[in-house]
Each structure stands twice: as structure tokens, then as C-alpha cells.
Write a sequence for this structure.
């Protein structure tokens, strides 16, 4: 496909494993149905788990550009794909999710009619065990205060956006984090002062599986490191408060998990971290669950 004939590029980061083949085909077909415009697809294959037949199928598609990186990393696959974008607009789609019909047309209309908008995000559906639920509950809040709304509900997702290429440059994808990369990207877009428009229209299906990366321990343990990077960029005072409040929540979560596993010392450490964050005092009463069992243990 000629790039000059396309307005939009969609990047699919994928490991191209055999077990994902049907989902990859579904994702590609959903992109084709998502716009009346010609859409260019970049399959950014990464890692060593790929299956040759899957790769050959991708290479054979007339609207797909196939690229490969031997390092297995979704954020790095994003960068490799973004490097090749020549169209005015671009987006991403995970290989196990899909766009709904005319999803990209709906997003494109906003960007073409509003030259001051750098990014449009939409609502969609999460699919868990074949049950669809609306993914976002508060999309309207984004248009009121996009930076503050980010800490109420992360409004940027792998399949709900369309970027203006001239504004969302490749630098936004560098200095990445391995997990929570969409929260980090949304933060950088906000702190750069770029305008985001949110729509409650449903344009995607996100398949929430039991082995989703978002459920992994590594994913859940990323936020404290990410918070440090965010705070280092000197966000507005109200945003700094939201970041430290989220830190309190995460530290409390770790404390509870550690106590359940019997690691009282580390549980107490994270508990103290939680109560010294913004509004962390609400966890103060949890102290009794750590201290009292410990005293009883030594008293016995």
C-alpha cells in the first residue's frame, strides 16, 4: 500500500506466537473495518517466541509492513513502529484486542475538525469471560481537566486513541517504563500542555484475560518507580498530591500482601511509607493488624 494514500497508521506490537494467531487475524481485520479510509498497518514483532507461519502471514498482507526486533519488549516495539510512521495520524492496537466498526473514522473526525487537538480518546468495552462491560466510567471528566482526570481513571489505553503525528513525536515514547507505559505517556502529554479530547462513544473491545500483563506482580510493582519519575518532572501542586495519594494506596496494598505472607517486618515498612504520603493517614488504623499480632506472638 502506498503511504501517500493513507491518513492513518496503526501499529500492532506482537510476539507473533502461534497461540495468538487467531487473535492477530481478528485485530488486523478489525483495523480494516474501522475506517472508510485506507489504513496502513505496522506489525512490530518482538522477541524470540514468534512462529514462522504467523510471521509469513503478516508479511503477505498487502496493507501490513512487517518489522522485527529480537528484544521482547512492548514499549520498544512501540518505538520501532513509531519510527516508521509517515502518515498524519497514528494509533496502536494490541494483538489480542480489536477496533469496532468505524472506530478510526470517529476519532479521525475530531482531529481533522480541531487542529488544536493532539489526541482523541474514546470509551469502549472490556470483555471478561465473554461478558462485555463499559471500560470507562468517567470519560467526561477528561474534557474538564485532563491532567487531574488521569489519576481518577487512566484515560489512555492501548486501543482507545488516535494521535496527531506532528504533535506526538517519537520522543514521547522514549525514556519508557516496561509496564504502565500508557499512564506514563498520558502524563508526558499532559505536562507538555497538549490538548486531549475524550468521547464516550464506544470504539474498541479490550479482552481482559487471566494472564493479562496488567495482572502480573511486575506490573503492580511499577507505580512507585513511575511516581518517582513523574515527581521529578515537577508537575502542578494538585497533580503532585494525586501522585503521592496513589503512592499511599500502592504502599498499603504491598503492606497487606506482605502481612498475609507472614513478612511482618516488611509489612510494617510499607505501612509506614503509606501513612506518610498525602492523605495516607486513612491507613493509620491498619497499624493494629500489624502490631497486635506481633506483640501476641512474642508474648506467647
Amino acid at each position: 500500500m502506498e503511504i501517500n494514500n493513507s491518513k492513518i497508521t496503526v501499529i500492532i506490537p506482537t510476539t507473533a506466537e502461534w497461540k495468538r494467531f487467531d487473535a492477530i487475524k481478528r485485530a488486523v481485520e478489525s483495523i480494516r473495518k474501522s475506517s472508510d479510509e485506507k489504513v496502513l498497518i505496522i506489525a512490530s514483532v518482538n522477541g524470540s517466541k514468534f512462529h514462522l507461519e504467523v510471521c509469513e502471514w503478516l508479511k503477505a498482507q498487502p496493507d501490513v509492513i512487517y518489522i522485527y526486533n529480537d528484544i521482547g519488549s512492548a514499549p520498544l516495539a512501540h518505538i520501532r513502529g513509531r519510527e516508521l510512521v509517515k502518515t498524519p495520524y497514528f494509533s496502536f492496537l494490541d494483538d489480542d484486542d480489536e477496533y469496532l466498526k468505524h472506530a478510526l473514522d470517529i476519532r479521525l473526525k475530531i482531529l481533522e475538525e480541531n487542529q488544536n487537538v493532539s489526541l482523541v480518546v474514546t470509551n469502549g468495552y472490556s470483555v471478561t469471560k465473554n461478558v462485555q462491560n463499559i471500560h470507562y466510567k468517567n470519560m467526561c471528566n477528561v474534557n474538564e481537566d485532563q491532567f487531574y482526570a488521569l489519576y481518577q481513571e487512566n484515560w489512555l489505553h492501548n486501543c482507545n486513541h488516535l494521535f496527531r503525528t506532528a504533535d506526538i513525536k517519537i520522543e514521547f515514547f522514549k525514556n519508557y517504563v516496561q509496564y504502565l507505559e500508557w499512564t506514563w505517556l498520558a502524563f508526558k502529554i499532559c505536562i507538555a500542555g497538549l490538548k486531549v479530547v475524550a468521547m464516550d462513544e464506544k470504539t474498541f473491545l479490550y479482552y481482559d484475560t487471566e494472564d493479562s500483563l496488567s495482572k502480573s506482580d511486575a506490573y503492580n510493582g511499577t507505580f512507585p518507580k513511575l511516581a518517582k519519575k513523574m515527581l521529578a518532572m515537577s508537575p502542578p501542586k494538585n497533580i503532585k498530591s494525586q501522585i503521592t495519594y496513589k503512592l499511599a494506596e500502592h504502599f498499603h496494598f504491598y503492606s497487606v500482601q506482605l502481612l498475609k505472607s507472614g513478612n511482618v517486618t516488611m509489612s510494617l515498612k510499607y505501612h509506614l511509607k503509606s501513612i506518610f504520603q498525602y492523605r495516607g493517614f486513612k491507613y493509620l488504623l491498619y497499624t493494629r493488624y500489624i502490631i497486635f499480632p506481633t506483640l501476641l506472638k512474642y508474648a506467647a
Remarks:
- The chain has a mean pLDDT of 90.
- Strands lie at 8-14, 39-46, 64-69, 89-92, 98-99, 117-128, 131-134, 161-164, 195-207.
- DSSP finds twelve helices and nine strands in the chain.
